[in-house]
Amino acid sequence: MKNQVPDHQDADLILAAEECPPETFSQYHRFTSSADETIIRKLSAHGPVLLRGGRGSGKSALLIEAHRRMVQAGNTFPVYVSLRYLPLLQSDGEEYIKHFCSHLAHAISQELIARSIEYDFGSPVDQATFQIEMLRMSQTIGKRIVLLFDDAAHIGREAPLEAFFDLFRTLSSNLVSCKASIYPGVTRFGVRFDVYNDSTVVDVSRADVSANTNFFPEVVRARYPKLAERAIFSDRLSPVQFANLLGRTVVGNLRGFILACNRFVHQERIGIPEIQKCMLEMATDYYWPLMEEVAPKLGIYEPLVEPARDVVEVIVDHASKPVKDRSRPIAPDRVLIHRQSVSEFAKIFEILEYLGFLARREASRALKSGGRGPVFALNLCHLLEATPNQRLTYEMVQEWMAGSGELAELHVSGQAFSKISLPSLAETKGLAILDRPVKTLAKSRAYPYGFTENLIGRLEADGIATVGALALSTDTQLDAVRRVGEATIKKIRGVVEQAIWM
Amino acid sequence: MRGGTRMAEAGLLLCGTVTTDGIAKKALDQLRTSIDQFSTRCTEYLALPEATADMIAFGPFCARVLLENCCAALLGRLDPFRILYLSEFQSQPEYEPSKRARSAFSWSGDVIPEERPAVELWSVDHDTSKISRALFSKHGDHIYWKPAVNKMLDHLASIDPDPDLAELRQLEAESYLSQTEGRITQLYSTLSKSVHWEYFSSVLVYDEVTVKTLIRDTCLLVGHLGLTSHYIPTAFGSLAPEEAVAAYKPFRRALS
Q1: From CA A13, how far away is CA A449, in angstroms rounded?
Q2: Residue of A38, A47, A142 with shortest CB distance to B186
Q3: Closest by alpha carbon to B230, among B11, B10, B15?
């Protein structure tokens, strides 16, 4: 199975929540925990909320579910707005505000049509007019407006963030409740936005499977009923343990979890050896390609990809050292790192957390050697790969899932990170992916659902040479390309989305 | 009723246990009774499967009383002089319920510092009278809250992981007070709007989801403050760390 690209049937299961058709959304998404319920309520209630979580942590799904429930309840006017809109990524300041207003006005108009509400929202192009228009609309239709902004921040392009938070603050009022998803590490809120006073920050984290033992088993039951049947598992592994172990393996990252589950769909028997195989394969064919895929989307932070790899290797090597030294039988799955080191490599840790290489489990714990720092849970794929015999045992499963074993510690006076040098970063830089040739999106480990050589040739023949040009092409332009129809356009759009957005 | 009776722990969590008789004990006992009463009402509202007129009308009021009582209890435990003074003054003939007493317990001044603090925390030029003793003052943060959060985290790290304690592990001493102050200010202001009947448009009136969110956030916030307060060595009536955690867990569970 090594390096195998999943087939298209499996691809259908890898649905990012925002790409899931509304009619099947409830079928594939579960919100059974009290934590999810609390978040959904916060997303529907009065008041500004920032929903913070890494890539694939389920932020979009929570926003969409909140929207769905508000529509059902009928006492508010919710608008889900994906800010995956290329002009927003390429602009700043006044220009950003103009594009933002036009994008939001369009979303509001679409929602009015969908709700069969007769109201002409107009096309306000600045914050002040927009605010007045929204208040007027709220009073006319007699409902509070709830704006749910998805993908408000792009990790590789921070400049427009200040403009966004300024808008977020301005548009928020008693009649308009703004909610937005952001990733951990967003710090550029601008001078007018005080994150603690102007919003409530809510974290989405599923890394600790011992704190919520139902979530991943529920996802498996909803998406892979066969993998919830006791009969296919070995005596020492229950379906619930299987789901929670995979959830813990990918530090609670839902995308990683779905990709892991896909590997078991056609298996007739699942035991610890099969999970071990999956983990080792994912270390090679999921995590490192993920880094390759993301690099050109990181903008000025692209040069941090190499040191980010080094940081992962240093941490995993350190965590697995007690096993190599034979001082412990099981490698600790969490590592406590002095905050000075975390602060020195802050952006790198942000990228690693965002991609699901590790997850912050505790904000601050005392190190034995002095000082304090956060505790990170490591993805188990790399940890297992770094252990001497690469063998997963039942005892390891028990300890890693309980999250109760001893921690590895990386103290500030240690030399672990000393060999990693940080490159200097350019002042400003657009996303490199936009200038890359279309062939970058060929089917590969980074783009498992990428283009065939034939399609790339046809796009190039029609003058669509770069990813940026492809992203800006209209459906009519793509339709004019030889043998490109509605289905292929949809596929092209999906791959371009994956390439540009996080 | 989910957790309703167990919320009796709220008073213990915020007021601690005072065994020595005196004015402070009487004041804290009074606050404890009120906190227990209003926190129980709050969790009863949270447990309702559907909105009721009572919940919409009285939920924000109960949460606001809870918020104020809890802050008063904490202030009294950190700065007993203030609560002793107020208690004594209220028994004097000069205290007139129909007149506003300028030294009365007030949100702005006792809980949130009235003036913006000087840029430097420490300076030979600072006047004593201008150093705020408010619950969320910058000096209070330095002296009380930051060390207490770290002590609490150290204690939690030494005991078995527990889902009821999971979110506490995300707290950080450096940002704890600014985060808490920001949220408590929002909650106070939002709850007040429902207490003073400020809204004259039906669109603005809080719905079930908003009222429940406000109640829950208020309970959670005072729960965190209450637990942390027991790790302040000079706080009056503090519980032992194990007792504080034992009081916090049922309180937290009632909010799940």
Answers
A1: 13
A2: A47
A3: B15
Min mean pLDDT across A33-37, A310-314, A380-384, A431-435 is at: A431-435
Of B157, B203, B209, which has the smallest distance from its Cβ to A44's Cβ?
B209
**What are the DSSP calls for A25-54, one per residue?**
HHHH----SHHHHHHHHHHHSSS-EEEE--
**Other CB atoms within 10 A of residue B5 CB:** 13
Q: How many beta-carbon contacts under 8 Å exist across A and B?
A: 85
Please tell me the distance from the alpha carbon of residue B168 to that of residue B181, in angstroms, as a whole number.
Answer: 17
Measured distance CA(B250)–CA(A133) in Å, rounded:
47
- Strand A334-337 to A372-378 pairing: antiparallel
- Give the strand pairing for A358-366 and A200-203: unpaired
Report the residue of chain B nearest A33, measured CA to CA.
Answer: B256
d(CA B67, CA A198): 20
Q: What sign for the dihedral angle of Cα B124, B128, B134, B135?
A: positive
More confident residue, A21 or A127: A127
A466: DSSP letter = B
DSSP state of A326: T
**Residue A153 pLDDT:** 76
The tens digit of pLDDT for each residue in B25-67 reads 999 999 999 999 999 999 999 999 998 999 999 999 999 999 9
Q: How far is B210 from chain A (nearest CA, A)?
A: 4
Type of residue found at A39: I
Spatial separation of the C-alpha atoms in residues A175 and A141, rounded to whole Å: 11
For A137, residues 6+ apart whose C-beta sits below 8 A from its C-beta are: A77, A108, A119, A121, A145
Please judge whether A45 and B173 are an interchain contact, meaning their C-beta atoms are less than 8 angstroms apart.
no
- Tell me if B163 and A44 make a contact (CB, 8 A cut-off): no
Note the pLDDT of residue B2. 45
Assign A10 a pLDDT band (cuts: 50, 70, 90): very low
- Show residues of chain A in contact with B201, CB under 8 Å: 139
CA distance A188 to A154: 12
DSSP category for residue A126? S
User: How many angstroms separate the CA atoms of A53 and A502, rounded?
Assistant: 12
A341 Cβ contact partners less than 8 Å away, ≥ 6 residues apart: A373, A410, A412, A416, A417
User: A364-378, A402-416, B9-23, B167-181: lowest mean pLDDT where?
Assistant: A402-416
Measured between beta carbons, which residues in chain A are less than 8 angstroms from residue B217?
A: 200
Band of residue A87 on the pLDDT scale cut at 50, 70, 90: confident
B171–A contact, CB cutoff 8 A: yes
Q: Which chain A residues touch B if contact means CB-CB below 8 Å?
A: 34, 38, 41-42, 44-47, 75-76, 138-139, 142-144, 174-175, 194-197, 200, 203, 208, 210-212, 361-366, 372, 375, 402-404
Burial-class residue A483 by CB neighbours within 10 Å (0-12, 13-18, 19+).
Answer: exposed
B206 has a chain A CB within 8 A of its CB: yes
**In the structure, what pLDDT confidence band is assigned to residue A9 with cuts at 50, 70 and 90?**
very low
Contacts of A107 (CB under 8 A, 6+ apart): A79, A80, A81
Chain A residues touching residue B170 (CB < 8 angstroms): 203, 362-363
List CB contacts (< 8 A) between B173 and chain A. 364
* A23-27, A100-104, A389-393, B162-166: least confidently modelled range: A23-27
- CB contacts of B160 in chain A (<8 Å) are 404
Q: Is B192 on the interface with A (CB under 8 A)?
A: no
Ranges of residues in chain B whose predicted pLDDT is under 70: 1-8, 117-118, 197-203
Interface test with A, best of B183, B209, B253 (most A CBs within 10 A): B209
pTM: 0.86
